Amino acid sequence: MACRKRQRFSPEVVGKTDFFDGLPDDLVISILCKLSSSAGCPSDFVNVLITCKRLNSLALHSLVLAKASHKMFAIKAKNWSESAHRLLKSCADAGNVEACYTLGMIRFYCLQNRGSGASLMAKAAINSHAPALYSLAVIQFNGSGGSKNDKDLRAGVALCARAAFLGHIDALRELGHCLQDGYGVRQNIAEGRRFLVQANARELAAVLSSTPTSNVPTRSWLTWSPHPIPHPNQRQPAVPGCPLLSDFGCNVPAPEAHPASRFLAEWFGSREREPGPGLRLCSHVGCGRPETRKHEFRRCSVCGAVNYCSRACQALDWKLRHKAECAPVERWLDEEGEAGEGNGAVDGDDVMIVDS
């Protein structure tokens, strides 16, 4: 039997106008803006692009891309491709600050395009994007992408203060430790402690206002608990004793990492994409930042087995995991027999572990 092409439309609707074609572009764009701003994953938006030519065209409108949520950019490192790069760039060109920050982090750390990555993060920072301000502060503190002489502690403190003013928890914690230690700013222990208390209060408020992501009862967050809480990364052991995440605060679950940080952790987690010979990753599981030169991050002054890109990561990882694992050693040397450069509060080469 001869094969005949299947009719796309029934004879009753052939020649008639589709109701969707009669909708004005402004209305469809408004609906797509709502969709992109509430997307929970990249597929929520990509499925619209492949529906039909008209939706594909309108979904790439600058108004739609500018409204996209940060969860729409939660691309897995294994799925990274040129098309994903183009989508992020289109959103960044449309003025989406989340896209600017995410693509900036990927270019700066993963693709090693330092200038372009820093420019994108600066574009987001100019628009008061707190994570971008904090990331630029970390770059200034470490001199990332350059040499040890490229560190600018005062610029790092200024960027951190701006992010802290916007309520960024890691920036509040970082600024608190800088003030307590007199690092890049005149020492003020009382003011530093105030910032740490504020960071803990915001951390607790964020957890209480969000949907519970842990099986731990809410009441136990506010009290000391002798029972371990499972680490969000199942490969890590549970934290025994008093598993406080905050500096002197509450028994709260670990905060959700930003999609950009998760991408970095996945990217450098594979053997094919290691940071480079002798370069290390930040030991805080929610960070993902790699060193851009040897000895850029500081190591634990007690065990020397972990290293951190910032005080905020050190404080979080200490309460979350490292406090239960840290064991003192009599003497340790780094890989080439030279001490790390340091980015901490003292004129040494180690991270100061403070058990609050």
TrEMBL record:
Superkingdom, natural source: Eukaryota
Pfam family, one: TPR_27
UniProt xrefs under PROSITE patterns: ZF_MYND_2 (PS50865)
Entry's Gene Ontology molecular function annotations: zinc ion binding
Residues in MYND-type domain copies: 284-326
Presence of the UniProt keyword Zinc in the record: yes
Residues of the signal peptide: none
Gene3D superfamilies: 6.10.140.2220, Tetratricopeptide repeat domain
Assigned keywords, A-Z: Metal-binding, Zinc, Zinc-finger
Region (Disordered): 337-356
Bias type Acidic residues, positions: 347-356
Protein name: Zinc finger, MYND-type
